[in-house]
Amino acid sequence: MDIVTLITVVVSLFVIIGLAEPLAARLRLPYTVILAVLGVMIGASATFFLRTDLTDALNPVAEAILGLPIRSNVFLYLFLPTLLFQATLGMNLRRMLDDWVPILVLAVVAVVVATLSVGYALSWASALPLAACLLIGAIVSTTDPSAVINIFRSISAPQRLARIIEGESLLNDAAAIALFGLFMGFVKLGVPDPTLGDALARFPLLIFGGAVTGWFVARVAVWVLALLSRYDRAQISISVALPYLAYIGAEQSMGASGVIAVVAAGLTLNLMGPGRLPPASWANLREVWDLLAHWAGALIFILAALLIPRLLEEVRLSDFALLGVVILAATAARAAILFGLMPLLSVLRLSPVVERPYRTAILWGGLRGAVTLALALAVTESIRVPLELKRLVGILATGYVLFTLIVQGTTLRMVIRWLGLDRLSPLDDALSRQVVAVALQTVREDVASTTEKYELSRDVVRAEAKQFGERLEGSVRAAEDSAEINDRDRITLGLIALAGAERDAILVNVRERTISSRMSEQVLSVAGRMIEGARSGGRSVYRQAALQSLSYGPLFRVASFLHSRLHFSMPLARMTADRFEFLLSQRFILQDLSGFIDGRILRIHGRRVADLLRELLARRIEAVETALEGLRLQYPGYAEELERRFIRRTALRLEEREYTVMREDGLIGAEVYNALMQGVAEKRGAAEGRPHLDIALQRSEFVREISTFSDLDEVTLKRLGRVLRTLYVNAGDLVAARNSAPKSVFFIASGAVELKIGRQSWRLGRGEMFGQMAILTKNPFRAEVRAIAPSTLLVMDETRFRRLLDRSEALQQAVQASAEKRGIDMPSQGKP
Predict the structure, then answer these.
(1) Taking the CA atoms of the chain, what radius of gyration do you get in angstroms?
(2) What does the alpha-carbon distance between residue 134 and residue 820 come to, in Å, rounded to a whole number?
(3) What residue ranges do the domains of the chain occupy?
């Protein structure tokens, strides 16, 4: 085929891809179904015209279509990395990490169950060797992620559920392709009946080797991208090369799974990219990848569909029975996951509750697509696979894809309608009315300012204002007087609106670079949790999500362990600095939300809901201020450095805005504007850097400020700052159990704890200590000690405490005062 003919065919395919999307929307069918039907029609037509004697005029076109270099390597090496990489970039990964257990369990278990179910069913129903049957099972166990995601968007599924299924669909493909490579190797080697041990021995290498390769290549790429922060096109070019380097490196150099490597590379860039690249550069990169993935997905589908007539040429009547076995076994395996495993995960609180209608929609929406066809094509091309197996793999895989697309795909909307998933719930219906009312109020204000600015005719303005006012009044009344919505749901709607306003404010601050790129994903994730918490559980879950955002997570505790036990401080310093910046960002955003409550919430939901939301917001602000004050006290001076950085960033943003206004008004030309903006960019680069946090130095300063240690000399204070161990606890965590053996004394760096003995209780705050009485009296802890706020405790072991007590008169006095407060008789110096 000459180059002109090849280019003509490829251009024609792009035209078809462009027309397929509006056609799918008009026919209300999945986009992949339309592409598959068009591909089958083109392939069948080309074959027909080549074999018919009716005309020879279309033979060159038919030969060009059938002569396209469609090989499995084109799919697996060219298109598949693009699809997988873009899917990982589009994930809200920080939110998916909250649900990593159900995602991994569903992905891995679903693939294994489907592979084994189809494999053993085919082995029972045919004379094929088990390895070949398991190979077919792995091929047909890959779902089409885009089809599944589109289903959930069309039925307005809960975001957390959609996120779990999206992650499951992506990792499902990765795991299935890894299994395909495993069993394909057994078939090529002529191992008819591989044992489970053989498979399990090689599977970890495929997964782990691919993950390490992808992670390493992505880390190097992120480092290069950060060096090219001023060159958007260079960054995009490097990102395009990244998935292919990861795929080829894993497959050719490590003998591992290239698919897993691409997924690992995408996840690594997703996590690190927003913090290392400017927001505009990251947004441009994502847009380019969205377009590349759209083209790759459409081309892989339509090119694979062109092969369907060829793969079905040698179909026999007996093959339909085996195809029925594949369909039944694959459907039964997916049903077992959806109706057996998912409810179990919900009972164990590892996954959200998935209602039966949603699970039915997922079952019927498990479409197979181009990946299945590409894997089948790879088998048919191999010279080491027996001919009969090639024929069966091509027919069964193609037949199953056609069944899912034509039977399930075309009836999917009807099933969704039958399940009632196309209708809004009363709460969502009320929310839509609220959105209309809020939007119309904003429009009225904007229209009023516009008519005043352009001095339009008063009669026209008055007539239109009256008509618009009637519409607005009706919308507000509908939002206020909905009979189906009770007061509790009105509060939920108000919380959803408040969390949405918080998210919008975050996006504005990120675009204006008031909030750094490093923090943008984290604060947006918190806003997302607020929205989902309000929708799923109302006020209580919203409040729980707010408290969780301020708590110390398990990674913080690991970092603390590394610092205190192994003297490796870098993770703790970085996470503490992140916490500082996060709390400052939260405070800036929350303080701006009062106006939203006093404006839109009050007008739509009334004063009672507005007052309640104002109280909740005040509590969140107080909790953030308390956490921030605790860090300020623990690390004096660092918060001020971050605040100075915020002021510098804000000043640069305002300066940039002024130059843009002057350029638009024609006061300065393009050359002057570019020179000024370049100067701002250089200053912004210097302001982006976050000040370094020296934990050991900061702790020494904190120890110096505690009155208990006021009489210690400088050398002792520095030594004390180094030997004190840091313990981070969340509100409600047990610090010391009643009747436990005393081993340490605790000093409260930030936060507060409560000591309970029977019905009596004491609360201790910053600078106070506990545990010293049990050590000095050599008795077990009489009190149960729990944190009542996220707290940072400095811990000193018994031996050092006794030495320090001998040397410090201030410490002796503090111990004596604490004993008298609790009615305990101690020696005059507080020593045993």
Answers:
(1) 32
(2) 76
(3) 3-66, 72-419, 486-617, 644-688, 696-821
**823 touches 777 (CB < 8 A):** no
pLDDT digits (tens, 9 = 90+) for 47-91: 777 777 666 666 777 777 777 767 767 777 788 788 788 878 877
Angstrom distance (rounded) from CA 329 to CA 113: 10
**274, 518 in Cβ contact below 8 A?**
yes
Residue 646's pLDDT is 76
**pLDDT over threshold 80, residue 396:** yes
The angle at the Cα of 371, spanning 366 to 372, to the nearest 5 degrees, equals 70
Q: For residue 39, give every residue at least 6 positions away whose Cβ sits within 8 Å of its Cβ, in sequence order, or none.
A: 301, 302, 303, 304, 305, 306, 308
Give the residue among 179, 70, 177, 188 at the shortest CA–CA distance from 129.
188
Listed in sequence order, the residues at least 6 apart from 727 whose beta carbon sits closer than 8 Å to its beta carbon are: 560, 735, 746, 792, 793, 794, 795
- Rounded to whole angstroms, how far apart are CA atoms 397 and 372? 7
The tokens of 759 are what? 């019905």
Please tell me the distance from the alpha carbon of residue 351 to that of residue 109, in angstroms, as a whole number.
15
pLDDT score at 350 = 72
SS3 781: coil
Tell me the pTM. Answer: 0.65
Q: What are all long-range contacts of 202-207, with beta carbons under 8 Å and residues at least 24 apart?
A: 203/178, 203/179, 205/255, 205/256, 206/178, 206/181, 206/182, 206/256, 206/257, 206/260, 207/175, 207/178, 207/256, 207/257, 207/260
Residue-level length of the chain: 832
| CATH class of the domain comprising 696-821 | mainly beta
Instruction: Inform me whether the pLDDT recorded for 708 exceeds 80.
Output: no
**Predicted confidence (pLDDT) per residue in 243-259, tens digit:** 999 988 888 877 777 88
Please state, in angstroms and rounded to a whole number, the distance separating the CA atoms of residues 233 and 16.
Answer: 29
Tokens of 758: 């029977």
Measured CA to CA in angstroms, residue 347 lies from 110, 344, 357, 504 at distances of: 19, 5, 18, 35
Would residue 666 be called left, alpha or beta, if left means φ above 0 and alpha means ψ between -120 and 50 degrees? Answer: left
pLDDT of 612 strictly over 70: yes
Write the pLDDT tens digit of every residue in 440-476. Answer: 766 776 777 777 666 667 677 677 777 777 777 777 6
In angstroms, the CA 341 to CA 102 distance is 10
Two structure tokens written together for 454: 């352009």
360, 277 in Cβ contact below 8 A?
Answer: no
Separation in Å, CA 17 to CA 23, 33, 36, 677, 813: 10, 12, 11, 41, 82
Buried b (16+ CB within 10 A) or exposed e, 574-586: ebbbbbbbbbbbb
28 in Cβ contact with 410 (< 8 Å): no
**494 contact partners, CB below 8 Å, separation of at least 6:** 601, 605, 609, 610, 612, 613
Check: CB of residue 791 under 8 Å from CB of residue 752. Answer: yes
Cβ atoms within 10 A of the Cβ of 205, count?
A: 15
Classify domain 72-419 by CATH number: 1.20.1530.20
What is the C-alpha separation between 403 and 400, in angstroms, rounded?
Answer: 5
Whether residue 337 contacts residue 106, with contact meaning beta carbons closer than 8 Å, is answered with yes
**Is the separation of the CB atoms in 676 and 659 below 8 Å?**
yes
How many angstroms separate the CA atoms of 115 and 789, rounded? 49
For residue 511 the two structure tokens come to 């675009």
Please compute, for residue 56, the number of CA atoms within 13 A of its CA located in the half-sphere on the CB side: 0
Q: In angstroms, what CA-CA distances link 67 with 50, 585, 644, 666? A: 12, 58, 65, 58
Q: How far apart are the first and last CA of the chain?
A: 97
Q: At what angle do helices 410-419 and 145-154 cross, to 10 degrees?
A: 40
Q: What is the rounded average pLDDT of the residues 527-552?
A: 79
